[in-house]
Amino acid sequence: MFESVFQTFTEVADPSLGPARLATLRQELERRGLDGFLVPRADEHQNEYVPKGAERLAWLTGFTGSAGVVIVLARQAAIFVDGRYTVQVREQVDTSAFTPESLIDTPPERWLEENLKAGQKLGYDPWLHTPGQVDRMAQACKAAEAELVAVDDNPIDAIWPDRPAAPLGAVSLHRKRLAGQKTEAKLAAIRKALKGCHGLVVTDPHAIAWLFNIRGSDVPHTPLPLGYAIVPREGRPTLYLDGRKLSNSVRNKLEDVVTIEEPGQLAKDLATFGTHGATLRFDAATAPAKLKMVLTEAGGKPDVGLDPIALLKAAKNETEREGSRAAHLRDAVAMVRFLHWFDKMAPTGKLTEISTVEALESFRRETLALKDVSFPTIAGFGRHAAIPHYRVTTESNLAIGKGIFLIDSGAQYEDGTTDITRTVVVGRPTAEMKDRFTRVLKGHIAIARAVFPVGVSGAQLDSFARQFLWAAGLDFDHGTGHGIGSYLSVHEGPQRIAKTGTTPLVEGMILSNEPGYYKAGAWGIRIENLLIVEKREIKGAERPMLGFETVSFAPIDLNLVEPALMTAEEIAWLDSYHAVVRRIVSPLVEPIVRRWLAQATRKLVPPPPAGNPKDSMPAPA
């Protein structure tokens, strides 16, 4: 009935190939006079999604996670991953060849200090590491009396016989009716922020897409054109893109504001800046160390810090906000139609995790506006719902029976990027499920209702979402929220609601609100909507205040809510939210879906007065 166009479910990892490929790499390193090599899961731009030809870590080891690094020595090889991939790495990698290590508990730098020997040479590809990463590795090598050596070409490329070619995705224009601002205005804002620098080297493709109002198709799920740019403090910027990606009409439009060169010209132009002693800003998060080296060797001064585009891009203008609202309304219709379908079909026992992914994508394609999914859908039943970043494959695919089902998904529309998670129950939930779900919901509501002064960061709000879980001795290990792009990345920085989210929130930023709870091996819960930071007028306020506008609209499963745990204010918020969902979505769906939606968004029965939990929380189930 349904099918997926943008997602696959085959398991591409093959642990059996790792040992032979590792042996071949060691032979290549020995030929080059190297005692070891760093293999990050990264491309030249530190993208979350990378071209197939940049999946060197996956090719070497079999591990397909989105973050990690391998250190290969003559007799040891370690693969470092974070807590999201502790289980996955052992399933995808031959652990007799690659020893799994924790990125947090045993950072690569510490491992190097303990395992490198004096006089050894550790190689690295300077295109795949940022200057900060290189500095940390260099310090570790120095502590071990070893040497960190930049290679001219990546040794894995030399032993990967069928390595895919670089992508040549067509570049398209992102019109002003969607972008809301012309490139000339954006250039003026960037130059105003470039204090003490002669120019900016733009290495983040998201920033390039935003600045020049273009989109591409070089990586999965995010409409990125891979390339670079230099924005001088005075004069015309230069965009370094493979010309084969540009049609004549797109090139002609771009050349109104920017000079276009092939990527190979970038190093030459940096060297020219260097010979004049120029100071150029490099983005600490995405700049390849190689570019800093080129400028420095030519006599220039690199200034490694925050790319000013990051904050400018994060604060969406009113056109982008309106686009996001339109995209979310469109997405709400698809989501409601899916939830109705799921509610009808799940009790039959005929659904699987894969069939739900295919169905939801199909409902989104029926909008006739879907460009792609914004990330591979996370659809987990039972124990798989307890894995926050689970990805279903044909091998892992579970039939959906009675219990908890979690689906986290998003879409790329030309006017906005969406991301929404709903947790639903098939059959009757246990008291424990309802307790945990309601505590997560209370945290979600606390974030949605938050009002805070200008200057507050996501780190200061993060505990709002956790307090009700903490009261029961519980927590979750991911951030509460991440930034969202405007028809760009579904994970955008620098804004975050997390312990590490130190960037102050400003009007126009879009963030997710997604607290969760995960009972390992049993089930998991997450409730996610997207929020736009907005101004809040408060009578008598002594300073400017901000709050959130919720823009995601789909029912929250009332079968999992325990009203006795909620305050009157929380119940009022939930009833109000559901009333909005019902009002805006009902006119856009079929009568049968409309009737289902009316029931799914009914008012929550309030608790009796004696059970009002304003002053205390009941003991956890």
TrEMBL record:
<keyword id="KW-0645">Protease</keyword>
<keyword id="KW-0378">Hydrolase</keyword>
<dbReference type="InterPro" id="IPR033740">
    <property type="entry name" value="Pept_M24B"/>
</dbReference>
<dbReference type="InterPro" id="IPR050422">
    <property type="entry name" value="X-Pro_aminopeptidase_P"/>
</dbReference>
<keyword id="KW-0479">Metal-binding</keyword>
<dbReference type="InterPro" id="IPR032416">
    <property type="entry name" value="Peptidase_M24_C"/>
</dbReference>
<dbReference type="Pfam" id="PF01321">
    <property type="entry name" value="Creatinase_N"/>
</dbReference>
<dbReference type="InterPro" id="IPR000994">
    <property type="entry name" value="Pept_M24"/>
</dbReference>
<protein>
    <submittedName>
        <fullName>Aminopeptidase P family protein</fullName>
    </submittedName>
</protein>
<dbReference type="InterPro" id="IPR036005">
    <property type="entry name" value="Creatinase/aminopeptidase-like"/>
</dbReference>
<dbReference type="Pfam" id="PF16188">
    <property type="entry name" value="Peptidase_M24_C"/>
</dbReference>
<comment type="similarity">
    <text>Belongs to the peptidase M24B family.</text>
</comment>
<dbReference type="Pfam" id="PF00557">
    <property type="entry name" value="Peptidase_M24"/>
</dbReference>
<feature type="domain" description="Peptidase M24">
    <location>
        <begin position="324"/>
        <end position="534"/>
    </location>
</feature>
<feature type="domain" description="Peptidase M24 C-terminal">
    <location>
        <begin position="544"/>
        <end position="604"/>
    </location>
</feature>
<dbReference type="InterPro" id="IPR000587">
    <property type="entry name" value="Creatinase_N"/>
</dbReference>
<dbReference type="GO" id="GO:0046872">
    <property type="term" value="F:metal ion binding"/>
</dbReference>
<dbReference type="InterPro" id="IPR029149">
    <property type="entry name" value="Creatin/AminoP/Spt16_N"/>
</dbReference>
<feature type="domain" description="Creatinase N-terminal">
    <location>
        <begin position="21"/>
        <end position="152"/>
    </location>
</feature>
<dbReference type="GO" id="GO:0070006">
    <property type="term" value="F:metalloaminopeptidase activity"/>
</dbReference>
<keyword id="KW-0031">Aminopeptidase</keyword>
<dbReference type="Pfam" id="PF16189">
    <property type="entry name" value="Creatinase_N_2"/>
</dbReference>
<dbReference type="GO" id="GO:0005737">
    <property type="term" value="C:cytoplasm"/>
</dbReference>
